[in-house]
Amino acid sequence: MLLSMTGFGKSSVEMPNKKITVEIKSLNSKQLDLSMRVPQLLREKEMEFRSQIARSVERGKVEANIYVETLQGETTMQFNIQLLEAYKQQVLQMASQLDIPEPTDWYSLLLRFPDTLKNESAPTGDNTDFEAAEKALEEALEALGSYRRAEGKKLEEFFSARIERIRELLAQVPQFETERIERIRARIMDNLGNLPQVEYDRSRLEQEMIFYIEKLDINEEKQRLTQHLNYFMETLGAAHGQGKKLGFISQEMGREINTLGSKSNHADMQKLVVRMKDELEQIKEQVLNVL
Fold first, then answer.
1. All domains of the chain, ordered by start, with CATH?
2. CA angle 133, 134, 137 (to 5 degrees)
3. What is the mean pLDDT of residues 145-169?
């Protein structure tokens, strides 16, 4: 079955004094492009987290964020009282020298100055924190996988409908082929008839006309396009990780459809080709989202 590269997964694990939340978002990309934000508490496990994500998502533009929320207990952040006092004295000195009123809201003013909060001790995680983070990450990856499978199922239905539509359009081509050949033959004869006093070998003309019409024959293109359509559907049912392969097949389908258009020399057939191209372009756009 198909997997989409687009997805989202989130999970939270609560402990007595904190909650660890993992959010993972993925979009399409030719390779794995992983950006990750890890709090200081869990920084030493970042490489392990990255490896776990890479094994799971395989490919795509992935953004992973881990948050740690303190539920209870003392915080390591403290007001820098000495610095706040220094700021206040400077403000009072400025007010006196400039003969302006003192501030009425000291709290709002002082807390805007830089470095008014200081971290008394850098937080470090323990095994309990690491295990909780690993569990949250695993659950978030499972949620991301479920999302990708659901989107992949939608893509599979979309591709099946587009491929079937191209088959229907291709099946309408033969009704115009006999008329197309007769029109080409008639046009050549009419043009020859418009040339005054020209003598030509009718046998040789017939041979050249057959050769010319054979060059415009589209049977091989129809057969190859049918084979590509079948191969595309077979690949849809294969194991995941077929996005690039589907892209290559759609390119080959495009070549055959373009050749049909260039050889058609018939307005109604060219309309069918345009509609095939429209269906194929929709396929190409969505193939970019397939893992």
1. 7-74+125-148 (3.30.230), 77-119 (no CATH), 153-287 (no CATH)
2. 85
3. 95
